[in-house]
Specification:
Blueprint (H helix, E strand, L loop, with lengths): L1 E2 L24 E4 L6 E5 L7 E3 L5 E6 L2 E6 L3 E2 L1 E2 L8 E5 L5 E6 L6 E6 L6 E2 L7 E6 L5 E6 L6 E6 L5 E3 L7 E6 L6 E5 L6 E5 L5 E6 L3 E7 L5 E8 L2 E8 L5 E3 L13 E2 L4 E6 L2 E6 L5 E4 L1 E7 L17 E2 L4 E5 L5 E6 L2 E6 L6 E2 L7 E6 L5 E6 L6 E6 L5 E5 L5 E6 L5 E7 L6 E8 L5 E9 L5 E2 L5 E9 L7 E9 L2
């Protein structure tokens, strides 16, 4: 197909760029002799978790999915894992010989251990679910962790020697981020229980109790060495802070400054109420009851190997007709004579026997997702001509079109019922990122007559004969905490 750019020259494709910001205080770039390797040295990072070794000489830290060892007073970071495992949330074993962490190395987050010198990498948990946030028992014989293997996040324990896995909590709400008390008798964790969210405690037999009701999004609870307080991260009212709570739950205290951006991970204890944590891209050292903060400097060097190939050259200034190599959403008319599709932000129709498609729309708006009515007389599609991606219907004989549904958020994937009386479509859920609401609109009145709960990445709706059932492919998540899960066919009764 050949399209003349002069017809669509006013079009502009809006590309949403996701910028991942890596805090960089000092950046050094060194090229190899043939530019095969680029060395990038950073002295700050984003969302780093750390833990202090039992001898208080070394810090293990995750940065860009790699584990690094740093002297306690700062210096050059030495990597002990590769860059491919997405290694996170490291924690030293009580004897200092091993480090446990979560890794995506086998396609799911599981618990792994590695020696402090980078040797002896071992996988400790297995399966199709995700295991996160490991923490050692004081005797070093087991790890507690959170996992969605029960259908939501609960607290689990795995034996380091036998690999036996045991479930410790069974609440329908999410329980996560466990941490063992210094005496090994109690495990503190976070729970999202609707009746009383906050910090909970359990023993190894599963006897649970509420330690303190805490509002906000909590993370990283950690016991003090004497077992008298718990420090945790609280993201509330747009701020991420460190908070302290006495075990009796009667005293709470904010430890971090109000202008700090504290990363949501566990603190690590030195001595006499002094602790390490990560904030504002740095490793920080602070003592309870004192205002002063010390920064522990570090440098970490990444060796990057950019691909070497002949890059394609694009001619963006040419005025000659160019072949279009990308079309979107081709749909065949019921009589099989026409194919409607989107290209260059407009709708087009290719008629059987004619090699040149005809433009159905030609405006500055973006028109996509065409869908034929069962009689072929109407075409539904989505357009932002009124400022938002709304649902439109076009009469194919008179060429008259009208907006059928004015969406509050982005509308997509319309699908006609077989009798032509309804159209099913998705509208993005404005309250969260990713999910979309499945809605059904009455074509005659423009009123929404059915609405299904939000689905993540739902597939194109398909109507059954008789229009009694709508079938979509939809993600069935393992839990409500994250969106991991499997895609299945979801059958929704129209009635």
């Amino acid at each position: 197909m050949i399209f003349n750019y002069s017809e669509t020259g006013r079009k502009c494709n809006l590309i949403k760029s996701i910028t991942i910001v890596l805090y960089i205080a000092s950046l050094t770039v060194a090229f190899g002799s043939e530019a095969d390797t680029v060395n990038v040295t950073v002295s700050e990072g984003t969302n780093m978790a750390l833990d202090l070794s039992p001898d208080r000489r070394s810090i293990v830290m995750d940065l860009q999915g790699t584990l690094w060892i740093i002297p306690v007073n700062g210096g050059k970071a030495i990597p002990i894992t590769d860059a491919l495992g997405d290694c996170r949330q490291p924690v030293w074993s009580p004897d200092g010989s091993m480090i446990a962490f979560q890794s995506y190395r086998d396609g799911n987050y599981h618990l792994w251990t590695i020696g402090k010198d980078g040797s002896g990498l071992l996988q400790r948990t297995f399966g199709v679910y995700d295991d996160r946030e490991p923490h050692w028992s004081p005797d070093g014989k087991s790890l507690v962790f959170s996992s969605d293997r029960s259908g939501n996040y609960d607290i689990w324990k795995v034996s380091v020697l036998s690999g036996e896995v045991k479930q410790l909590t069974r609440e329908k709400a999410n329980d996560y981020y466990p941490a063992w008390s210094p005496d090994g008798a109690t495990i503190v964790f976070i729970s999202e229980r609707a009746q009383a969210p906050g910090l909970y405690a359990t023993d190894t037999l599963g006897n649970e109790s509420l330690m303190a009701g805490v509002e906000g999004k909590l993370a990283g609870p950690t016991w003090s060495p004497d077992g008298k307080i718990v420090v945790y991260n609280n993201f509330s009212a747009g701020k991420s802070l460190l908070e302290l709570m006495k075990v009796d739950g009667l005293v709470k205290q904010v430890l971090s400054a109000s202008d700090e951006d504290v990363f949501p991970f566990r603190v690590s204890w030195l001595a006499d109420g002094e602790y390490l944590y990560t904030s504002d891209g740095k490793i920080k050292r602070k003592k309870i009851g004192r205002k002063g903060i010390k920064t522990i400097p570090f440098t970490a060097t990444f060796a990057l190997s950019p691909p070497r190939y002949q890059r394609k050259k694009y001619n963006f200034n040419g005025a000659d007709p160019q072949p279009v190599k990308g079309i979107r959403g081709p749909v065949v008319s019921p009589d099989g004579r026409n194919i409607a599709f989107a290209a260059l932000g407009d709708l087009w129709m290719l008629t059987k026997g004619d090699p040149k498609p005809a433009a159905l729309t030609n405006t500055e708006s973006v028109d996509i997702d065409p869908a034929w009515s069962s009689d072929g007389n109407h075409l539904a599609y989505v357009s932002d001509k009124a400022g938002n991606m709304d649902l439109y219907v076009r009469d194919m004989k008179s060429k008259v079109e009208h907006r059928l549904y004015d969406g509050k958020a982005i509308v997509k994937m319309p699908s006609w019922s077989r009798d032509g009386k309804h159209i099913a479509f998705y509208e993005d859920d404005p309250t969260s990122w990713g999910p979309s609401l499945l809605k059904i609109v009455d074509v005659a009145s423009g009123q929404i007559v059915r609405e299904h709960k939000a689905l993540f990445n739902g597939g194109l709706p398909a109507w059954s004969p008789g229009d009694k059932i709508i079938v979509v492919s939809a993600l069935q998540p393992y839990s409500s905490r994250y969106r991991e899960g499997v895609s299945k066919f979801l059958m929704i009764s129209f009635d």
